[in-house]
Each structure stands twice: as C-alpha cells, then as structure tokens.
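HOLO CASE FILE
Compound: S-adenosylmethionine
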Amino acid sequence: MKSPEEVNTPYQFILWAEKCFDESDLFYGHGTDNAYDEAVYLILRGLGLSFELDDTELNQSLSKEAKDYLDALVRQRIEQCLPVAYILNEAWFCGLSFYVDERVLVPRSPIAELIGEKFSPWVNANEVKHILDVGTGSACIAIAMALAFEDATVDAVDISTDALAVADENSRRHGVSDRLRLIRSDLYENLDKQRYDIIIANPPYVDAEDMQNLPEEYQHEPRIGLEAGEDGLRLVRELLSQSRNHLNDEGILIVEVGNSQHALIEEFPQLPFMWLDFEHGGDGVFLLTAEQLEAL
Ligand SMILES: C[S@@+](CC[C@H](N)C(=O)[O-])C[C@H]1O[C@@H](n2cnc3c(N)ncnc32)[C@H](O)[C@@H]1O
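Model generated. Tokens follow.
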C-alpha cells in the first residue's frame, strides 16, 4: 500500500481510502456494503466530523498529524481486517452513536427500521409499557427502544458480563439508565414475573457451516454473539418455547434469525411466522403474537 503523498483533504483521503480498500481483500458487513461508504465512515468519523458536512470542510487542508492518523486507520482496516466500528470505538444504530469494542457485536440489525416505525401497525405505541431485549450486546436495540417509547421501561438481558459493561456505558451515554434495567441472564432464567408488551431478540444464529466460513472481519466479534449450534437454532428454539410465559396476552415477539430462517420454517411448520420486509435491506426477522405462540 503506497503512502498518500498527494492527499491533503478529507475528500481526497476518502477517495484514496476507497482505492486502497478496492485493491484489498476486504469484506463489508458491519454497517456498509461497499468500499466508498466504508471510506466515508472511517475518514469522516476518524476526524470526528459529521456525515453531513459541507464542501468547505471536505476540502480543507489537513495537518501532518491528521494525515498520519488517517493513514494509520486505513492500514489498520486493511492489515487487520478490523471492522471500522472497532477501530473508531463507535457504531451507528437508529441514528444514534454507540460505544463498541470487541466485547460486543457491531450493531447492524435491520430491526432498527422497525424501531423507527415504532412497530406500526403491530402495536399501539401509546400502550407499550414494558419491553424486553434478549441478548442485548451493546444495548443498541434496548436504548433505541427506550428513546422511541418514552413511557416504557426496558429490561435488557445478556449472558455476557463483558457485553453488559459496554451496555451500561451506552445506557449512561444516552441518559436512559432510569428506564433501562440491565440483567445478566441466560435467556429468561434470571427474570422476575414481569410480562412484556414487546420482546425483541437478535440472538446468536450462525450455524456450524457458516461459522467455519466467516470472513476475517467477523473473527474479531465475540463468538458468543454469533455461534448457535449445528443448525443455528439453539437459542431460537428456546425463545420460541419460553416467550409466551413472558408476554402479555396482546404482546408480540420479534426475532432476527438471518440465514437460519429456512431451518426454522422446516422445524416449526405449525407456527405462522410473519417474515418482515425492510426498505433498507435485511431479512430473516419474524414476528409472532402471543396468541400464535400458543400453538406450541
Ligand atoms: C447477535 S448478538 C446481538 C447484540 C445486540 N442485540 C445487537 O443487535 O447488536 C447476540 C447477543 O446475545 C448474547 N447471548 C448469547 N447467548 C445468550 C444467552 N444464552 N442468554 C442471553 N444472551 C445471550 C451475546 O452475548 C450477544 O451479546
């Protein structure tokens, strides 16, 4: 990789980084899906600039220190195949900035879109009082839910104490600690008798075959956030069998299962999974009502 000699402005750095990425064997799956967007993300946020800056800022000359720093960031992305979110300790979800490091998965769930729409038309937002996020990781979903449903309390569980430490940091950053309870729990094990209007889960769901073929970028993520047995359904199976007992009668369960969608449909033909559509990409997210879960 050549050093960026004639590269002086943020915009020139973006184009240079894009070219370096294109010439390298990188995988995009942590918030962007192409070299240009990845370069914009790394360079602008590396400089602490907003994504909505104007031409003057994009074309300003950078100091030698800033240029050396950006050079190092680009090298880190390429040489270590490290996701940008871990390089910058920052990921974006629902338009919110979250602290992340290798203790938590990089937030990227399409569930963000549902939160933006307050789960319309499946729930009446004014009636949502209790929400549960299972496998909360950085707490990106739990915090976005707390901010979208201002009158609700949110419980968020994770089996990983490391992840819960990151979740706690994000909860303070977004000022929701008074309505967000972080609980260490293996799924529902340590929960009390509270029933929820919405249970949301983005559990680990990668099957054994996919685990063996993960691009290097994903090897930096905690395995406990990805791995879910031979068919990817280890946790989803448990969620299906236990969730009814924690939902209100009008409640809903929303779970992301990604590629394990087909194995799931095959194993539970009696369940009328509603597979949700996303305008901005993503699939493998189902919704079931409390009533539909009775079929189990
Ligand atoms: C796919 S990550 C999702 C993180 C976050 N909700 C997000 O969307 O970015 C799954 C999370 O589930 C947690 N987890 C794994 N097994 C669990 C279990 N048995 N009970 C609770 N949480 C679990 C992992 O530690 C990880 O944080």
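CASE NOTES: The chain has two domains: 10-88, 104-293. The chain has a mean pLDDT of 96.
CLOSED: yes
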